[in-house]
Amino acid sequence: MRRDIGRAAIVLLAVALATGLTEASFALGAELTFEWYVAAVACLAWWCGRTSALLAAVSSAVISDFLFLPFHGFSFGMGLADGIRLLGFVGLASLVAHLVATRNAAEKERAGRERLLAMAAHELANMILAVRTWTAILRRDGLDGGERDHAADALARTSRTLMKLAGDLGDWSRIAAGHLHLEPEDVDMADVVQEAVEEIRGQATAQAVTLSCSLLPAPVHADRDRLHQVALNLLTDSLRATAHGGTITVSVRSSERRGLLSVHGMGDGIIHPIPEKLLDATTDRAAASIGMALSRDLIRAQGGDVTVHGGGFRGTGATLVVRLPTAVLQPSAPASSPAAAMPE
């Protein structure tokens, strides 16, 4: 409210200043023109946005047509010239506001790409350091079989994570360039998610994390491999954020011509006052991951969307929901355990 009042005051001040300057110019012998109103509208569009600029455009037209011109005995009311002037003000406001919005979007995208590269460089440096560390351990003399196996397993896990990051960055680049190749088909989301759950079950068991699944048939039209990639990304990030001994709730079902996948992780890892920033790779690493942001873009490329519910409070976790268009597919038998709540 206070912000709106402030902008309205700025609009009134700018239009009043333009009126005063126009009057002063006319008094000094200049021809009656409205460049000062044009400048006021353009400046407000640049600094305050489209709404303020349009308000200034209408105010400028009203003041010039019903106050300024009649005061000097030129005209009264709205004629053709007055209508053209109003359209000119409005067009100028819209054009400048659009140009500013486009520039701001380009700057935000550039800044986001720089943050993404910095984030990727940081992740790669950490992984390379881990590879070097475990390699050096394996080169030591006197390692027993258990220590050697532990180091080899850690090296293999780090290598897989490194390959996943490289793949995510490659996909991100292809999406940005418009070269992402998709092969959509009718698939059952429950089957794809079940495969992803089985892939991370070993990691979940090692962290004493319980996977609670309710996977009802949900036929969707999507690229099966990309859907599996998305499900695995969301499950992996939820597992990373869930505290030792916690629970991850996974559910799949159909609703209103959409296949819905919900992944809810409990723990201290997913915390942000604005839940949607979990899916924004332009934010800091604590609030986002490349995999989650990539998942959003992959789903959007297939006509769906990813949203976040909850979060923002320590220990409450967050729920990520994937929505994809429903396909015509004969449902199979439910592969479900106890039902889990999913936000609409």
Quote the beta fraction.
5-15%
Global mean pLDDT: 78
SS summary, helix count = 8
**Succession of helices and strands:** HHHHHEHEEHEEHEEE
Structural class: alpha+beta
| Distance between the first and last residues' Cα | 31 Å
In spatial order, strands of the major sheet run 6-7-5-4-2-8
Q: What fraction, in percent, of the residue positions are helical?
A: 55-70%
Number-wise, the strands total 8
Radius of gyration: 29 Å
Uncertain regions spanning at least 5 consecutive residues: 269-288, 329-344
Overall form = elongated
Mind describing the biggest β-sheet?
Answer: 6 strands, mixed
Q: Please, how many domains?
A: 2
Key structural traits:
344 residues; alpha+beta; Heat Shock Protein 90; 2 domains; 6-stranded mixed β-sheet; two-stranded antiparallel sheet; 58% helix; disordered C terminus
Brief description of this entry?
The chain has 8 helices and 8 strands; from the N terminus they run αααααβαββαββαβββ.
